[in-house]
Design a protein that fits this description.
Layout (H helix, E strand, L loop, with lengths): L30 E2 L1 H11 L1 H20 L6 E7 L14 E10 L3 H67 L5 H33 L11 E2 L12 H5 L6 H23 L4 E10 L4 E9 L4 H4 L1 H66 L5 H36 L9
Parallel strand pairs: 1-4
Antiparallel strand pairs: 2-3, 3-5, 5-6
C-alpha cells in the first residue's frame, strides 16, 4: 500500500518507490524526492499559509458569537429644571436602573452557526491541502517526465555520435559516400539542439515545482524517482465505494450543517428579544426610595424576519442539490479516469514488455549489419528512429498511467493498492 500523507484525504505517496533509482548519481542536496516535495508544500505553500489566517478569523467569530449581551446602566432624572414648583430640584425624581436582554436562544444558535462556519473552513482547508498536494504531484511528475526526456535525448545524442563514427569509418574505407556522413552529422547537431531545448524545459518545470512551497530560486537541479513500476489498482466498484471520502463531498456535508445552523438561527431571530429593566427610584420631595421594574416585548417581529427564514431554507435546499450534482460529476469523472488508467496500464505494459525489446533487438541487428556493409545508412536511421520512438512511447504511457493514478487518488481521497507489475 502507498502511505497517505495525512489521514485519508491527502494525496497518497504514489511515488514512494520513486526515491531510489532514477538520477541516483545526482547530488542529493541538489535533488528532491516525491515525499520531500509534498512535505515542503504542506509546510510552506503560500496559499495554505494565507488560508490559515481565515481559520483564525473564524475562530474569533466563534468567540464573539458566544458573548452574552452586556448589562446596561441607566440613570434618569425627572421633574427637575422645569417651571413653577418644578423649577428647582425639590420635586426631582432620580432613577438608577439596570437593563439586559433575554435573547431567548439566539446566542446558542449564533454560536452554533459560527462553529459550523469554522467546520466549513476546515473542510475547505483540507480540500486546499489535497489540491496543493495533487498539484505538487502533477508538477513533480511533469519534472520527472522532462527529466526522462532529457535522458532519452542523451541516449539519442550518444547514438548519433556512434553513428557519425560508424559512417566516418565506412567513408574512410570507401564503402559510403560523404553525403551519408554529412547527413549523420546534421542528425547529431539536431539531437544536440533538441537536448538543449529539453534541458530548458526541465529547469522551468523544476522552478514551477519549487513554487509550490514558495521558493522562487531553487537550488535543486533534479527530481529523484522511477516511474517504471506500475500498480495493480482496485476494481472500479471498490474505488466507487470510496467516493464518499471525496473532500468536495465532505465539504458539502459541512456546508449543509452550516445551512441548517443558519436556518435555526434565522428562526431564533424571529423571536424578539425581551428587554428587562430593574432599579431604584429616589423621590426628592419625600426622601423615599422605591423599586422599579419593566419589560419590553416587541410586537410583529416574526413577520419582519420571514424573508430571512425563507432565504435560509432555500440555501439549505441549494446546498443539498449541489452535493447531489457534485456526486454525479465525481462518479462520472472517476469512471473516465479509471478507463484511462486501465488503457494506459495496458499500453505501457505492452510497449515495455513486448514492443520495445523487439525494436531494441532490431536496432542491434541493424547496427551490426551496417558495420558489415549489408544495410544502408537510411536503413540504420530507420531502425534508430523506431527504437527512439518506442522508448519515448513507453515513457509517455508510463507517465499517463501515473497521471491517472494521481487524479484518481485526488478524487477519492484514498490510495490505490500498489503491487507492482
Amino acid at each position: 500500500m502507498w502511505v497517505l500523507l495525512t489521514k485519508r484525504t491527502l494525496l497518497a505517496c504514489l511515488f514512494s518507490i520513486l526515491g531510489t533509482t532514477a538520477f541516483a548519481e545526482s547530488n542529493v542536496a541538489e535533488s528532491i524526492d516525491f515525499n520531500q516535495a509534498i512535505l515542503r508544500t504542506l509546510e510552506s505553500n503560500p496559499e495554505l499559509r494565507a488560508f490559515g489566517y481565515a481559520l483564525e478569523a473564524q475562530k474569533g467569530r466563534v468567540t464573539q458569537a458566544s458573548i452574552r449581551p452586556g448589562i446596561e446602566l441607566g440613570i434618569d432624572i425627572e421633574n427637575a429644571a422645569g417651571t413653577g414648583e418644578f423649577s428647582a430640584a425639590g420635586g426631582a425624581e432620580a432613577t438608577i436602573s439596570l437593563a439586559w436582554s433575554l435573547e431567548r436562544g439566539k446566542r446558542e444558535r449564533r454560536t452554533e452557526t459560527a462553529r459550523a462556519g469554522l467546520s466549513v473552513l476546515r473542510s475547505e482547508a483540507e480540500l486546499m491541502r489535497l489540491e496543493a498536494s495533487a498539484n505538487t504531484a502533477r508538477l513533480y511528475l511533469s519534472s520527472l517526465a522532462h527529466q526522462a526526456e532529457v535522458e532519452l535525448s542523451d541516449e539519442a545524442v550518444k547514438l548519433a555520435q556512434q553513428t557519425v563514427s560508424a559512417v566516418r569509418r565506412r567513408v574512410d574505407a570507401g564503402r559510403s559516400t560523404k553525403a551519408d556522413l554529412a547527413r549523420a552529422e546534421v542528425t547529431l547537431s539536431r539531437m544536440e539542439l533538441q537536448r538543449e531545448d529539453l534541458a530548458h524545459e526541465l529547469r522551468t518545470s523544476i522552478r514551477q515545482l519549487a513554487a509550490q512551497w514558495g521558493e522562487t530560486n531553487p537550488d535543486i537541479k533534479a527530481v529523484r524517482g522511477n516511474f517504471s513500476e506500475l500498480p495493480t489498482p482496485d476494481s472500479f466498484a471498490e474505488l466507487l465505494a470510496r467516493v464518499d471520502q471525496n473532500p468536495d463531498l465532505r465539504r458539502y456535508l459541512s456546508e449543509k450543517r452550516l445551512r441548517e445552523a443558519e436556518l435555526r438561527q434565522a428562526e431564533a431571530n424571529a423571536k424578539p428579544d425581551w428587554r428587562i429593566t430593574a432599579g431604584v427610584r429616589h423621590l426628592q420631595r419625600s426622601d423615599d426610595q422605591a423599586f422599579v421594574a419593566g419589560i419590553t416585548i416587541p410586537l410583529g417581529a416574526k413577520k419582519l424576519n420571514r424573508g430571512l427564514v425563507a432565504t435560509a431554507r432555500a440555501d439549505l435546499a441549494r446546498s443539498e442539490a449541489g452535493r447531489v450534482a457534485a456526486s454525479v460529476q465525481i462518479e462520472t469523472r472517476l469512471f473516465a479516469l479509471y478507463e484511462g488508467l486501465e488503457h494506459s496500464l495496458h499500453r505501457a505494459i505492452a510497449l515495455r514488455d513486448d514492443i520495445l525489446p523487439r525494436v531494441e533487438l532490431a536496432l542491434a541487428e541493424t547496427q551490426r549489419a551496417y558495420e558489415l556493409g549489408r544495410f544502408s545508412y537510411f536503413e540504420l536511421r530507420a531502425a534508430q528512429n523506431d527504437a527512439l520512438q518506442a522508448r519515448m512511447e513507453v515513457t509517455v504511457a508510463l507517465i499517463d498511467a501515473h497521471r491517472n493514478i494521481i487524479e484518481i487518488e485526488a478524487l477519492t481521497g484514498a490510495a490505490l493498492t500498489s503491487p507492482t507489475r
